[in-house]
Amino acid sequence: MIIRYLGHSAFELRLDDQRKIVFDPYEAGSYDGAVGFGPIMEKYDIAVVSHDHPDHASADVIASAENVVDKAGERDIGGVRIRSYGVFHDETSGSERGKNLVSIVEAEGLRIAHLGDLGHIVDPGDLPELEGVDVILIPVGGHFTIDAATAASIVKRFRPKIAIPMHFKTEKLGFPIAAVDDFTALMDNVEVAGGSELEISGSALSGASKVVVLDPAL
Questions:
Q1: What is the model's pTM?
Q2: Which in 48, 94, 154, 189 has the greatest CB count within 10 A?
Q3: 10 Å Cβ neighbour count for 122?
């Protein structure tokens, strides 16, 4: 399995059988150009969407996907198991920014969790299914989501093999959120990949839990 960071909170999973899954595909140019990443042009077998804000839900990408997962519950799509759980985009039960989905994709013997725009602390008592996932994709920029300190706390509580930060400030993103360095400064065993892709295999998952920082591809 290959995981590719497209930008913002969008990731692509490429399975060994060449099927492709996208998480939270952004609408390029949305929010008056604040989302400055390039357009997502691929077509996907599965689109997993945490909520309907334009920086997480490109109408064109979603419409072209063969399957869309945007509601809480469990689905099996050709042997890919996806479990989605309702949480919130803020600390006030959704009263400020609405609801959000945390989704866990199980494929090829691996579990990949995408936390969407999680806006509040969670612990193993709230979402025990997250504990010990292989990869967790977690927002770290604050303001609209959890901040670096909360993200660090969640990673340390759930102990994924790999944590990949997302939803942080870059030169292509005009939102008033923090850079990824605020998060990595709080974590041990940080690797900067120097690219946008990571192969999730036995060797990548061995050893101590780590943070891997990917560069946006678009």
A1: 0.95
A2: 48
A3: 20
